[in-house]
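ARCHIVE CARD
Drawer: 12
Card no.: 0347
Subject: one protein chain, sequence and derived structure
Cross-reference: see card 0346
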Amino acid sequence: MLAHHDLDSGEVNELLGQVMDNERTLRALRDEVTDLRNVYFGVNRTYATYDKLIVAYEKKVADQLENQKKHLDKTCQNLDKEIDDVWHKIKESEEQVHKLENLVKERNPFFVDPKENKKFKRMKMDINDNV
Protein backbone atom coordinates (compact mmCIF):
# COMPACT_ATOMS: atom_id res chain seq x y z
CA MET A 1 0.00 0.00 0.00
CA LEU A 2 2.78 2.41 0.84
CA ALA A 3 4.43 1.69 -2.46
CA HIS A 4 1.60 3.32 -4.35
CA HIS A 5 2.03 6.61 -2.55
CA ASP A 6 5.78 6.76 -2.67
CA LEU A 7 6.20 7.77 1.00
CA ASP A 8 9.62 7.59 2.57
CA SER A 9 10.15 6.18 6.05
CA GLY A 10 10.29 9.66 7.64
CA GLU A 11 6.87 10.53 6.30
CA VAL A 12 5.53 7.16 7.39
CA ASN A 13 6.90 7.71 10.88
CA GLU A 14 5.38 11.20 10.96
CA LEU A 15 1.99 9.84 9.87
CA LEU A 16 2.21 7.04 12.46
CA GLY A 17 3.02 9.65 15.12
CA GLN A 18 -0.05 11.65 14.09
CA VAL A 19 -2.19 8.50 14.21
CA MET A 20 -0.89 7.70 17.71
CA ASP A 21 -1.52 11.32 18.81
CA ASN A 22 -5.05 11.09 17.40
CA GLU A 23 -5.62 7.78 19.24
CA ARG A 24 -4.41 9.36 22.54
CA THR A 25 -6.66 12.37 21.95
CA LEU A 26 -9.56 10.04 21.15
CA ARG A 27 -8.95 8.01 24.36
CA ALA A 28 -8.74 11.22 26.40
CA LEU A 29 -11.98 12.46 24.86
CA ARG A 30 -13.66 9.10 25.56
CA ASP A 31 -12.44 9.27 29.18
CA GLU A 32 -13.76 12.82 29.45
CA VAL A 33 -17.13 11.76 27.99
CA THR A 34 -17.24 8.88 30.50
CA ASP A 35 -16.43 11.28 33.35
CA LEU A 36 -19.13 13.70 32.16
CA ARG A 37 -21.64 10.83 31.93
CA ASN A 38 -20.75 9.78 35.47
CA VAL A 39 -21.20 13.35 36.67
CA TYR A 40 -24.51 13.57 34.81
CA PHE A 41 -25.78 10.33 36.32
CA GLY A 42 -24.49 11.39 39.74
CA VAL A 43 -26.34 14.69 39.45
CA ASN A 44 -29.48 12.83 38.34
CA ARG A 45 -29.21 10.45 41.32
CA THR A 46 -28.63 13.40 43.64
CA TYR A 47 -31.60 15.23 42.14
CA ALA A 48 -33.79 12.14 42.52
CA THR A 49 -32.64 11.78 46.14
CA TYR A 50 -33.34 15.45 46.87
CA ASP A 51 -36.70 15.13 45.15
CA LYS A 52 -37.58 12.14 47.36
CA LEU A 53 -36.38 14.04 50.43
CA ILE A 54 -38.45 17.07 49.49
CA VAL A 55 -41.56 14.96 48.90
CA ALA A 56 -41.01 13.16 52.23
CA TYR A 57 -40.48 16.49 54.03
CA GLU A 58 -43.59 17.99 52.44
CA LYS A 59 -45.60 14.94 53.56
CA LYS A 60 -44.15 15.18 57.07
CA VAL A 61 -45.02 18.89 57.29
CA ALA A 62 -48.50 18.26 55.89
CA ASP A 63 -49.04 15.47 58.45
CA GLN A 64 -47.82 17.73 61.26
CA LEU A 65 -50.15 20.51 60.15
CA GLU A 66 -53.06 18.09 59.94
CA ASN A 67 -52.29 16.80 63.45
CA GLN A 68 -52.06 20.38 64.76
CA LYS A 69 -55.37 21.21 63.08
CA LYS A 70 -57.02 18.17 64.67
CA HIS A 71 -55.57 19.14 68.05
CA LEU A 72 -56.78 22.75 67.68
CA ASP A 73 -60.22 21.56 66.57
CA LYS A 74 -60.46 19.32 69.64
CA THR A 75 -59.22 22.15 71.88
CA CYS A 76 -61.83 24.49 70.39
CA GLN A 77 -64.55 21.90 70.94
CA ASN A 78 -63.45 21.49 74.56
CA LEU A 79 -63.37 25.25 75.06
CA ASP A 80 -66.84 25.59 73.51
CA LYS A 81 -68.11 22.94 75.90
CA GLU A 82 -66.46 24.66 78.87
CA ILE A 83 -67.93 28.02 77.80
CA ASP A 84 -71.37 26.44 77.50
CA ASP A 85 -70.97 24.84 80.94
CA VAL A 86 -69.89 28.15 82.51
CA TRP A 87 -72.71 30.01 80.74
CA HIS A 88 -75.20 27.45 82.07
CA LYS A 89 -73.78 27.83 85.61
CA ILE A 90 -74.04 31.63 85.34
CA LYS A 91 -77.67 31.33 84.26
CA GLU A 92 -78.37 28.94 87.15
CA SER A 93 -76.64 31.32 89.57
CA GLU A 94 -78.65 34.28 88.28
CA GLU A 95 -81.84 32.27 88.72
CA GLN A 96 -80.82 31.31 92.27
CA VAL A 97 -79.99 34.93 93.12
CA HIS A 98 -83.34 36.02 91.74
CA LYS A 99 -85.13 33.33 93.79
CA LEU A 100 -83.20 34.33 96.92
CA GLU A 101 -84.03 38.01 96.39
CA ASN A 102 -87.72 37.11 96.02
CA LEU A 103 -87.55 34.95 99.12
CA VAL A 104 -85.90 37.74 101.12
CA LYS A 105 -88.54 40.21 99.88
CA GLU A 106 -91.33 37.85 100.84
CA ARG A 107 -90.02 37.16 104.34
CA ASN A 108 -88.86 40.67 105.16
CA PRO A 109 -91.40 43.34 104.27
CA PHE A 110 -88.87 46.06 105.23
CA PHE A 111 -86.27 44.79 102.81
CA VAL A 112 -84.99 47.48 100.46
CA ASP A 113 -83.30 46.31 97.32
CA PRO A 114 -79.75 47.76 97.27
CA LYS A 115 -80.08 48.31 93.54
CA GLU A 116 -83.06 50.57 94.11
CA ASN A 117 -81.88 52.25 97.32
CA LYS A 118 -80.64 55.80 96.65
CA LYS A 119 -78.63 55.92 99.87
CA PHE A 120 -76.88 52.69 98.89
CA LYS A 121 -76.15 54.08 95.43
CA ARG A 122 -74.66 57.25 96.96
CA MET A 123 -72.48 55.22 99.30
CA LYS A 124 -71.34 53.08 96.41
CA MET A 125 -70.52 56.18 94.34
CA ASP A 126 -68.59 57.70 97.28
CA ILE A 127 -66.61 54.51 97.69
CA ASN A 128 -65.82 54.40 93.97
CA ASP A 129 -64.76 58.06 94.03
CA ASN A 130 -62.37 57.40 96.90
CA VAL A 131 -60.76 54.41 95.27
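Annotation on reverse: Residues 104 and 110 are 10 Å apart (CA to CA). Residues 8-130 form one domain.
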